[in-house]
Design brief:
The complex is a heterodimer of chains A (369) and B (289). Chain A has 369 residues and is of the alpha+beta class. Helices cover 24% and strands 33% of the residues of chain A. In chain A, helix 2 crosses helix 3 and helix 2 runs parallel beside helix 4. Classes of the chains: A alpha+beta (369), B mainly alpha (289). At the A-B interface, strand 6 and helix 2 of A face helix 9 and helix 10 of B.
Chain lengths: 369, 289
Amino acid sequence: MARLEVQGLCKGWDFPVIDDLSFSVEEGEFFVILGASGIGKTTLLRLISGLETPDAGRVIVGGSDQTRLPPYQRRIAMTFESYALYPHLSVYENIASPLRARKVAADDRERRVREVAKLLKIDHLLDRRPGEVSGGQKQRTALGRTLVADPEVFLLDEPISHLDAKIRHELRTQFHTLEDLRKVATVYVTHDYAEALSLGDRIGVMGSGGRLEQVGSPRDLFERPVNLTVAEHLGQPTINVISARIQSENSQTFLTAESGELKFSLPDEAKAMLQGQAKDRVTIGLRPQFIRPLRETDTGLEVVTAEVDVYEPLGANGIMIAHSGGVRLIALTDPEMHYDAGEKVTLGVDISRFHYFDSESGYRLNGAN
Amino acid sequence: MTTDTGSTTDGVKDMWRHVRFLFLAFLVLWVVFTVFPLYFMVITAFKTAAETNLTVPTFWPQDWRPGNFAGVFAEKTNFNALLDSFIIATANTALSLFLGSLAGYAFARFPRQAGGENLAFWILSNRMFPPVAILVPMFFLFDNTPWGTDSHLSLIFLYLVFNLPLATWLMMVFFRDAPLEIEEAAYLDGWRPLRAFVKVTLPLVLPGMVSVAMLCWIFAWNEYLFANLFVGSAVKTYTIVIPTFTHGSQTLWNLQMAFSLIAMIPPVTLFILLRRYMVRGLSLGVVKG
């Protein structure tokens, strides 16, 4: 029943933080907002929950305008980045708090708290204080407090970003399995693109202007980023960005890197597209997985010789940072190989995977969304 | 080389020994300096009046008079003075805490709406003038109230001048330390602001509140200057009773000290009882980590 709709939200203090921001989340949808730290993600959640009043715009839940409603009258639950547990109350009382506030009968309250605690595997900790449980358990307690409230909208503010990498992954999968989260509109805020790709039904990438740069499915965002900001935000290691000049030689068209001597031939369809836009300069984006040390079986790859600067073996794969003709390239390599700094390597570049961005605005050129 | 190093370490050791000795000597002196008045008070309380007036003081009573402690209550009203002091101190503390918490909360959470740093500082500055400067104006002011100067109410309200700035300022600091997010989490749980305050924020500042209560109570309990001028017939505080232990032109030091010792019991007891609440750090380890 409850669909969350945010319309033209604005909020600023000395400078605008949220600027004319709109999106909607369907009931049962898991919407992830991805953005760098300090870009206004938390402010956005605080506006939706009613902890801040917007300068303009509306927050609509289930068709009713709740913009001017105080937080305690909204059916919106939120977990804080800091967890914000009540230090003087037990884990049980922390989880029971929303039920007490809404005067739920004692036996019903007891049943629901235990149910949620069991679901989150903290049922053995109910008598402890928040100061006596681990970070992951605190996070689960905070989550339990929001789950038990049975709200119409869930807001999750970086719920797992302060935990160890291993627990973070464990809890990430937990979000997949929590049925309750799949029944209502959920807004999940994070700066970690992997969390976003893993959890989001849809993702909104927030840029520095206080707006959503792009909203779409994880696949959409990863494969067709609307601009450089989005492209750079998704993916680890970061996408290779090369400024290039479009040059013709002997009836062939090339892309020449502006900062060096690196030169790629231009695929035909891209050539048609770029000529259609009458550009002579372009910014190329290429994900590191499409650059790799050349193998004999490889075909259709542009060959580039490069010198290794840094090599990071990471177990499942390796990250090579190399330079070729004055251009820095990041490549994803196979795990069984090893490279030393200073080593000369031959790299294969899959030019069919190039993303083309406007060299001035940074917006996508091939096929605007 | 080895002998050299040996003698150097010996030298250093020697030096440390001397420093340690000096430090201990200083501590002993300090203890004597601070404990001696208390010691002299106790033994004086047990002496005879004649012995307290000897030109060469005795450091151990020649004649033990534990009866002095009963003697101070020969005048029935003297016990009432302790009671009056207790009523005034307790009521004033309660009032200071109540108003100070509200004001402190406002300054901590809504600094702009509450008048900002300047107003908060102005309130604190009320403690900076010498109290005696307002002695006479205050007397005339309270003389015109329905309850007059010689009443519990006059001192209960008057001591707010000193205790309220202290309570406001300290509570402001404690409220600032209490994480706002915890209160906001309570709003989102569905608690109205006042309920959220009582349920979440108040327990967090309680240790601080107990400390503030102690400070306010002790000030009001021990105040002499204003009490001496304001009250004296209908109401008497114990502080203005102490100087009345005289016999002709002779000061009865023994009775004064005995009564002072009795007056020390309530604050010391309170301190011992409330000590464990004064430990701070209840909110440690809650936010992050």
